[in-house]
Every structure is written in C-alpha cells, then in structure tokens.
C-alpha cells in the first residue's frame, strides 16, 4: 500500500517541500489539499497511472486547525466518483501533527467509497454577510504572526455573534503589501490593514460589527 501525505490547511501548504523531503525518506508521496503545491486530485491521477496499488491517505497539519481534515475524505471520494474505481483509497481517521518520524499504520484507516461529496444544498448561495475579512497567510505574514491574528479574529468575531453571520473570515494567500505583515483586508471597503496583531483585534472587530 502506498502512502500519500496531504497537507490540510492553507498555511500548511507552505511547508509541502519540507514534508516532501521527509516523505521521500519514508517511501511516501505528498499532496496539498489547498494552497500552492502538488494538488491532491492531480497526485491521485498520477498514482493511478502507476498502477492499482491501494493508497493510504494521511492528513498532515502544522497548526491547530483540524477543520479541513474532513475535506480530505470528501475530495478523495469525489475523485473516486469522477474517475471510477481506478484505485482503492483508505483514509486515516486522525491527521498527523508536524513532520512524521514514521508512517502511520493503515490498520485503523477507513476505506472510501465513490460519492459526490463536494456539493451540499447549504452551499448553494453566498453566506448572508455584509463584510468579508481576509487574513493573509502568505509566507511573510505567517512568519510575522498571521496565525495568532487569525485565531484572535475568529474568537472575537464568534464572541460578538458575528462570525459567519455578518462577517465572513477567510484565510488567503499573499495579498500584499508584504512589508506591513501581518496583513488583513476588509471588504467591501477595499481597506488593507497592517500590521494587525492580536492586540489590535478588539478595536477592529468593534469597528467591523458596528
């Protein structure tokens, strides 16, 4: 059985070259669920072209956001649904945190069946928000504290009852100007803010929700 290590969060994708180096030493392959890098669907296509050996999918994250973990199985099931039974796919129930020292045993993995799992009636329309706040998670912003800023924003917006209600919080790739990292962009105002630290978040949330 082949092992495919898949970065989960947008910020995790920035470390795929490092993960690929470790994976190569363990006899595994690497893909990214989102962000720049070897995309999961393309990697599954390549593995299917190499033969019919089953593939063990293992999520990898370098942070605390496990929300994207469920999407690993969703995208893989959609791939099976759209391509046919080219490969037998198994998915680990728990993602790995950080660079692995060894590959996890596939014994507790679950086998995936084909299903169009990328659509949902609840995802038909944009959310009923009046603002969207973009948190840059590019390399410079990540290095200068964007993860902490995003966590503080998410917590403060939730406490204000605004998260996904009146304000949609979204992580993005680089959106400039990098010298002002960590950068936050407020839409529809076309307002670039930075640097935005956790200490700045209470005042920002108050302004966004008034």
Number of helices: 6
CATH class division of the largest domain: Alpha Beta
- Tell me the series of helices and strands, N- to C-terminal: EHEHEHEEEEHHEEEH
Computed Rg? 19 Å
Major beta sheet summary: 6 strands, mixed
- How far is the first residue's CA from the last residue's CA? 55 Å
The shape, in one word, is globular
> What is the count of β-strands?
10
Brief overview, please?
With 210 residues, the protein is α/β, with parallel strands linked by helices. It has two domains: 2-111, Rossmann fold, CATH 3.40.50; 131-208, Glutaredoxin. It contains six helices and ten strands.
Descriptive labels:
Rossmann fold, four-stranded mixed beta sheet, Glutaredoxin, six-stranded mixed beta sheet, alpha/beta, 2 domains, single chain, 210 residues, globular
How would you describe the overall organization of this protein?
There is one protein chain. The protein is α/β, with parallel strands linked by helices. It folds into two domains: 2-111, Rossmann fold (3-Layer(aba) Sandwich); 131-208, Glutaredoxin (3-Layer(aba) Sandwich). 30% of the residues lie in helices and 20% in strands. The strands form two sheets. Strands 1, 2, 3, 4, 5 and 6 form a six-stranded mixed sheet that branches. Strands 8-7-9-10 form a four-stranded mixed sheet, covered by helices on one side. The model has no long low-confidence stretch (mean pLDDT 93).
